[in-house]
Every structure is written in C-alpha cells, then in structure tokens.
Specification:
Elements lengths: L3 H28 L2 H29 L4 H36 L6 H27 L6 H5 L4 H17 L5 H31 L2
Helix pairs in contact: 1-2, 1-3, 1-4, 2-3, 3-7, 4-7, 6-7
C-alpha cells in the first residue's frame, strides 16, 4: 500500500535521475557526442514513468489520508512535477546542442566558461536536493535557499556579454540565439530546484 515514506524513496530515485540527466546534458555539450545525446534523452522517459508512478501512489494514498497527510502528499506531488519539468528543460537544451553539433556552430571560449559556471551552480543545488531526499533529512536543503546567488541576475550579465560578443563579430547571431536559449533553460532548472527546496522544508515542520 502506498505511503508517504515509500513515495519519498521513489522521489529520491527520481531526483537522482534528474541530476544524472542534467550532468549528462552538460557532457554532451562539452564533448559534441550525438550517441551520448541519444542516451541522455532516454533518461527523460524514466523521469516521465516515475512521475506517473509516484503521482498514482500519492493519489491512492490521499483517498484514505487525513488532512495533514494530504497536505504533505500535495507537497510531494508538487516536487514530482518540478523534477519532471527539469527533465523537459534538459531536453530543450539537448535540442539546441544537437543543432549546434549538426551545424558545427561554435561558442566563444568566454561563453563556454560562463555556461560552465551556471551548470556547476545548478548541479550543486540539485545535488543538495538529491542528498536531502535520499537521507530523508529535508532541512539539508537550507543551504540551497541560503545561497546568495541570484541566477537571474547572473544570466542577465551573461546575456549582455554574449550580445556584446555578437556585435563585435566574435560569434554569429544564430549561435548567439542558441546560447541565450541555453542560459534561460538553465536558469529555469535552477528555479525549479529552489522551488523543490522550499517545498521540502514544509515537510519537516
């Protein structure tokens, strides 16, 4: 029978899958490997299956749950949705990377370093979420929320930098558009990771 603890365990596995997809997406970007890209896209199928299974478990649990338990189940359902969306944004990034590879587009060295910084900040936040879910100690995500990093502000700086490089002729308008898309998708993944963290803190009360 479904219960909140079993749902949490499945949720931890789903979060690990989302983290792996994020890490592999970056590897595809850095290595220009279409075979690895296809392998990475398959992880999204696992995220979609997990989303359906965990949601079904929570619905079944909710039928006999009290109001407090239902409130907790709703929080977990929200986390499930955010993890599934992270997979969708990884797919969006991979679509851009696939075009980049096929069209032999190049990003400037400065641009690659900027994107790499955003990747690592987002990866670190996702790791904290995975660890908290795996250990069942949700207060561990406080570090994610305590961070003073404002990804949106950083993305704005990097967007301005990239537009300057385009106007200076360092990169093409098409490459620039692809890069800006990737920045925005990464910022969205970071946003959903922080949203998950805020929800997990509700469960420890």
């Amino acid at each position: 029978m479904a219960d909140l603890n079993s749902a949490r365990i499945k949720l931890a596995a789903m979060a690990k899958l989302a983290l792996k997809m994020w890490q592999m997406s970056f590897k595809v970007f850095m290595e220009h490997d279409l075979d690895l890209l296809a392998e990475t896209l398959k992880l999204d199928e696992g995220l979609n299956s997990a989303e359906k299974e965990i949601t079904a478990d929570l619905v079944a649990f909710g039928r006999a749950a009290n109001e407090e338990e239902k409130a907790q189940a709703m929080v977990l359902a929200d986390v499930v949705g955010d993890l599934e969306l992270i997979g969708d944004y990884c797919k969006d990034i991979l679509e851009r990377v696939e075009i980049k590879i096929e069209e032999k587009l190049l990003f400037s060295e400065e641009g690659v370093k900027e994107y790499e910084e955003l990747f690592h900040k987002t990866e670190s936040a996702l790791r904290e979420v995975v660890f908290a879910l795996d250990k069942g100690s949700f207060e561990m995500v406080q570090e994610v929320l305590r961070s003073q990093e404002h990804i949106d502000s950083l993305v704005d700086i990097y967007r301005a930098n990239h537009n300057r490089r385009m106007l200076d002729g360092v990169c093409s308008p098409f490459s620039c558009n692809m890069f800006l898309n990737m920045l925005d998708f990464t910022a969205a993944i970071y946003y959903h990771t922080k949203k998950i963290s805020r929800n997990l803190l509700k469960l420890k009360k």
